[in-house]
Amino acid sequence: MESATVLTFPPFRLDPANAQLWRDSQLIPLRPKPFAILRYLAAHPGQLVTKEELLKAVWSETYVSEGFLSTYMRDLRAVLGDDPKVPRFIETVPLRGYRFIAPLTTTQSKEL
Q1: pLDDT value at residue 1
Q2: DSSP-assigned beta bridge partners for residue 95
């Protein structure tokens, strides 16, 4: 049996190993790129993640404009119910990047 890290920021649980986002007991469908953005931000809680760093982390082999990042960030915020003007989960740092600001706990889940 292996254990995998699950990141919890109520009411959400992010399961990176299984590429799943849960809201309480409901599985939330999330496309791969918004999921990758959320996973990267949640892996660096409280830290400024620059737009360039995020683009490199999520699109390492491909050039993508910041417009794509903004679009995916908007999609991600819609899924989380997060307001960029009064953020609970992801704070925008103007002209620089983003910061994951929600209280975050990590737990180990057992996998078969």
Answers
A1: 40
A2: none
Model confidence, pTM: 0.89
Q: SS3 letters for 67-110?
A: HHHHHHHHHHHHHHCCECCECCCEEEECCCEEEECCCCEEEEEE
Would you state the structure tokens that stand for residue 43, as one six-digit string?
């892996």
Question: CB burial class (10 A; 0-12, 13-18, 19+) of residue 7?
Answer: buried
* Token output for 44: 């660096």
Show the domains of the chain with their CATH numbers. Answer: 2-111 (1.10.10.10)
Does the pLDDT value for residue 65 go beyond 70? yes
pLDDT at 40: 97
What is the C-alpha to C-alpha distance for residues 10 and 58, in angstroms, rounded to an integer? 24
Preceding omega of 32 cis (within 30 degrees of 0): no
